Fold:
Amino acid sequence: MVEFRFLPYHSLAHYLRRPRLVAPGIHVCLFALTWVLFWIQPQPLAQGPADWPFRILFLADLPISLLAFGVTFNSDARFPYALAARGILGTLWWYFLGCLIEERKRR
Structure:
């Protein structure tokens, strides 16, 4: 007899209740989607398929976006570094916001 072992439902539900893990995960997926769409059709971001994911990321990562926006689009030599910094710092930003949300929920 073959036995199938699935993850119990409560483990998935427990994972989804942890904002410090879910928020950065959503950020990474949205960040990757934005730049994959941009590289597939390299139009200006406000006119191409990456328009809405980019706008959501810009507003969600506002403190990081304000710092990295000028470097990202004004220097071709520094573009990859600014892009990597924006992805890493934005994900860390959402990790710490998720930790803050968990702390508020415990009170």
Summary: The mean pLDDT is 80.
